[in-house]
């Protein structure tokens, strides 16, 4: 029986997950794929590392050349993370005729197209399903299954850490920092959890999703990003009273040939399918003209969900190797569609303003909003002690640049104590 040899680069949480699954499901994979998959080498710089599996006599090396120059290795799995040396290793592997599977969203969101170009030239495969949504096969769906119908919108909950934090703040009334500490203990937060809570991790995934959904190059620099550090328990409670919940969304939309790509906390109607996605789960909601709406849901982080996505890619490459079709699915996307600046994006907004409570205050604020074409859907007043009132507005669809100008003017009013919260509302029919 044919044998395909594999190397793993980096034995972190995910790398070990791949090794464990490869060793445990050896026979199962062999039956599924019709050939033997052998873990031939492991690259790991920390020789002392305590492993969660018995690696037997598989050679462990800290020298990349040992993998690169081994002519038997046909697939390299990169689970080191970070930009360098991962980028160099992937480039050299592709150029030497090896196929690569990576979960490295940081690298792909910045240098994906360069690496896909190298793979295309070399006729090798570069697969990356695990970079977005863990076990959820969303990239395969965008690359293949949903290809027949132009995609209009992809809205995802693609960061498990922030979804866990917001779920706990909503359902159990916990505060931000204690929940973040729990997310770190549970192992789905990034090494630097600022990447999660400030929206960067979801931003990288939004760049990858947009590139595939709209078949035009989108990089991390194109993504407008706001994190969840400013979200308070009060925001959550007021949203709840209006049948809305707060989620960190990655939103990718094509309108009139331009791409909107942004990551920020958003209020979603509780009836929206993404509102039911709790804890560290991820989901991606896709809209297209003829297929309508599709939602994929599952575990977006963690050892085995991520490892299973990697092994799905390995299975595809194994088929490509066997049928001589490596490199056939690699696509290098050029920048074909412009990115819509955030000022030109149209959204509904949820605003909380703290104002002096006296006659004419609401009229003054409403007049300024009206002057900038900001039309209001609902207004609620909460009387507070101390002569102030909190006004909560939800707008109709407005151009973001117009709202920003109106708020700038409102902030300068003598009656304005504070613009407490400005959040976008999404998913309203
Ligand atoms: N830190 C990421 C998350 C891990 O919380 O979703 C998966 O990319």
What is the structure about, briefly put?
This protein is an alpha/beta fold and 429 residues long.
General description of the model:
By secondary structure, this protein is of the alpha/beta class. The protein is 36% helix and 27% strand. The protein has 14 helices and 17 strands. The strands form two sheets. Strands 7, 8, 9, 10, 11, 12, 13, 14, 15, 16 and 17 form an eleven-stranded mixed β-sheet that branches. α5 (105-122) links the parallel β5 (99-102) and β6 (126-127). The protein is elongated and about 85 Å long. The relative contact order is 0.13. The model has no long low-confidence stretch (mean pLDDT 95). Residues 159-161, 188-190, 196, 201, 300-301 line the site of L-homoserine.
Observed structural traits:
429 residues; alpha/beta; 11-stranded mixed β-sheet; 6-stranded parallel β-sheet; 17 strands; elongated; binds L-homoserine
Structural class: alpha/beta
- Provide the list of bound ligands, each named once: L-homoserine
Distance between the termini: 55 Å
Spatial extent as radius of gyration: 24 Å
The total beta strand count reads 17
Helix tally equals 14
Strand residues, percent: 25-35%
The gross shape turns out to be: elongated
> Sheet bearing the most strands, described?
11 strands, mixed
**Mean residue pLDDT:** 95
Helix content: 25-40%
Q: Which segments are poorly predicted (pLDDT under 50) over 5 or more consecutive residues?
A: none
What's the topology here?
Elements: E1 3-9, H1 13-24, H2 26-33, E2 36-43, E3 60-61, H3 64-68, E4 73-78, H4 86-95, E5 99-102, H5 105-122, E6 126-127, H6 138-145, E7 151-157, H7 160-171, H8 176-186, H9 194-197, H10 200-214, E8 224-225, H11 233-241, E9 244-255, E10 258-269, E11 281-288, E12 292-299, H12 303-322, E13 346-356, H13 361-371, E14 376-383, E15 388-395, E16 398-399, H14 400-411, E17 416-425
Parallel strand pairs: 1-2, 1-4, 2-3, 4-5, 5-6, 8-10, 10-17
Antiparallel strand pairs: 7-9, 7-11, 9-10, 11-12, 13-15, 13-16, 13-17, 14-15
Helix pairs in contact: 1-12, 4-5, 5-10, 7-8, 13-14
The structure holds L-homoserine.
């Amino acid at each position: 029986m044919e044998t395909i040899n594999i190397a793993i680069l980096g034995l972190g949480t995910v790398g070990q997950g791949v090794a464990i699954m490869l060793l445990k499901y050896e026979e199962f994979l062999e039956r599924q794929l019709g050939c033997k998959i052998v873990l031939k080498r492991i690259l790991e710089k920390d020789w002392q590392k305590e492993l969660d599996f018995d690696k037997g006599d598989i050679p462990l090396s800290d020298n990349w050349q040992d993998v690169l120059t081994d002519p038997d290795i046909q697939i390299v799995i990169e689970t080191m993370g970070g930009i360098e040396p991962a980028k160099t290793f992937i480039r050299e592997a592709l150029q030497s005729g090896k196929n690569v599977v990576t979960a490295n969203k940081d690298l792909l969101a910045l240098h994906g197209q360069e690496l896909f170009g190298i793979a295309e030239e070399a006729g090798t495969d570069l697969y990356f399903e695990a970079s977005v949504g863990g076990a959820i096969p969303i990239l395969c769906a965008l690359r293949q299954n949903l290809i027949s119908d132009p995609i209009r919108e992809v809205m995802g909950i693609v960061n498990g850490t922030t979804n866990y934090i917001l779920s706990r703040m909503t359902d159990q009334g916990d505060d931000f920092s204690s929940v973040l500490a729990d997310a770190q203990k549970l192992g789905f937060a990034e090494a630097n959890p600022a990447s999660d809570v400030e929206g960067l991790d979801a931003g990288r995934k939004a760049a990858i999703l947009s590139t595939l959904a709209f078949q035009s190059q989108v990089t991390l620099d194109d993504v407008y990003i706001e994190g969840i550090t400013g979200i308070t328990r009060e925001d959550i409670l007021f949203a709840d009273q209006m049948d809305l919940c707060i989620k960190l969304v990655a939103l990718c939309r094509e309108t009139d040939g331009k791409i909107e790509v942004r990551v920020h906390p958003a209020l979603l109607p509780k009836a929206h399918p993404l509102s039911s996605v709790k804890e560290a789960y991820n989901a991606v909601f896709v809209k297209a003209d003829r297929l309508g709406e599709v939602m994929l849901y599952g575990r977006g982080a963690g050892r085995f969900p991520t490892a299973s996505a990697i092994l799905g890619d390995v299975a595809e490459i194994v088929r490509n190797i066997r049928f001589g079709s490596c490199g056939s699915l690699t696509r290098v996307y050029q920048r074909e569609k412009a990115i819509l600046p955030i000022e030109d994006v149209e959204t509904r907004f949820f605003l909380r303003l703290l104002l002096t409570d006296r006659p004419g205050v609401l009229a003054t604020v409403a007049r300024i909003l009206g002057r900038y074409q900001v039309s209001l859907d609902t207004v609620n007043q909460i009387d507070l002690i101390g002569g102030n009132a909190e006004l909560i507005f939800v707008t109709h669809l407005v151009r973001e640049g117009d709202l920003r100008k109106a708020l700038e003017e409102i902030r300068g009013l003598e009656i304005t104590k504070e613009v407490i919260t400005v959040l976008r509302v999404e998913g309203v029919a």
